[in-house]
Amino acid sequence: MGRRREFDEEAVLKGAMHVFRKHGYQGASIRDLEEATGLKGGSIYHAFGDKAGLFDAAFRHYNRAVLEGRLERFAPPGSDLKGVRELFLSLLHEPDNGSLGCLITNTAVEFGGNINTHPRVEAALGLLRSTFRSRLGEPSTSDRDADEAKADRTAVRLLAFYQGLLVLIRGGEDKASLRQAIEDEFNQLETLL
């Protein structure tokens, strides 16, 4: 029978998540992770197998707590395009006015070019794409196939815009300019849909 974990897993994963957001996978040292989690290296390895295991658990925590939480709060089912607009605007207000960036975006950039992307990146991007697509609503004309294709392209465009915003925010771009870009995009979308 294995030993029972004697730490607050939620707090450990939150601390590790912030380290990986700030430093990336490669840049996060075991010392950084020890300081952020309150665990010693041996305990990290015992609980999560290795740094990759902790990264995967922290990423799962990020997708559940941050991404899914943000979607539920700002763009729940039935919120239509207005909810998606609110979701985009929420990106401009990171807790504590920080700019650690998005773990999904940061990981996609760090591991981009690999033949196999990280499965949690794929899952998160898929969730965003499908959320955008579902909030665009049902086709309104008799040419259902053309409308579906247009909605799919719009969802991909929104996904690219969303990820681009996160990169610009991490890079320190002026948030007032980004807010205006979001408003312009959604004002234009409203006239097209």
TrEMBL record:
InterPro entries: Homeodomain-like_sf, HTH_TetR, Tet_transcr_reg_TetR-rel_C_sf
Keyword terms of this UniProt record: DNA-binding, Transcription, Transcription regulation
Pfam families linked to this entry: TetR_N (PF00440)
Domain HTH tetR-type: 6-66
Sample GO molecular function, one term: DNA binding
Residue spans binding DNA: 29-48
PANTHER family per record: HTH-TYPE TRANSCRIPTIONAL REGULATOR YJDC, TRANSCRIPTIONAL REGULATORY PROTEIN
UniProt protein name: Probable transcriptional regulator protein, TetR family
Organism: Rhizobium etli (strain ATCC 51251 / DSM 11541 / JCM 21823 / NBRC 15573 / CFN 42)
